[in-house]
Every structure is written in structure tokens, then in C-alpha cells.
Amino acid sequence: MIEKMTQLETAELGPDLKTVQALQRRHQNLERELAPVEEKVNRVNHLANTVKASYPNEKASVNNRQKEVLELWDVVKKKAVERRSRLESAVGQQIFMNSSKNLVSLKLRCISL
Questions:
Q1: CATH of domain 18-112
Q2: Record's Pfam families (predicted)?
Q3: The whole model's pTM is what?
Q4: Cα separation of 20 and 14, whole Å?
């Protein structure tokens, strides 16, 4: 999970539309890789509940670890949503910049005629 979180913390958004779209595809792949991790987190959570029921003396220790895992998973999910949002904004900005450049170029051509 920490490896995935490190990948999500990348601040790179790319200098152009193609780069941002490539980063977006890479992020989508990363989100697909998170699906099996979520299943494992759910299994660990279920196992922790089973252990707490079977071994009441270990409840405090298991609760602490269970809480750590669930908090870390929440952080990973939030970072994935934030990264997706930043990339979507970057795509919009790049499209706007490209359109602006095209309009300025067209205006300059019209003026030079």
C-alpha cells in the first residue's frame, strides 16, 4: 500500500496535453491495481474481527493494527481521488491552452492578411 501511495503523491502533471493524458492513463492503471488491494484490506479487516472474537485478550492489539490498516487505506483512496482530480483539471487546462494558442494564431494570421 505504501508503494501505491508513493506513486499517488507524484506532483508531475506534464507540460502538454499528450503527457497529461499519458499520466491520466497511468493513473487509471494504478487505480485498477488498487482494486485487489482493497479486497485484501477487506479480508484483513474481516480476519481482524474474527481474531478479536476468538481471542478477546488480543482485542486491543488487533484493534490498533486494524485501525492503522484502515486509516492507511483511507489515505490511499483519498490520494487517488485527489490525483485523478488534478489530472482531470490539467487536461482541461491543456485543452484551454491549446485552444487559446490556436485562436491567437488565427487572429495573427487574419491581421497579417
A1: 1.20.58
A2: Spectrin
A3: 0.80
A4: 5
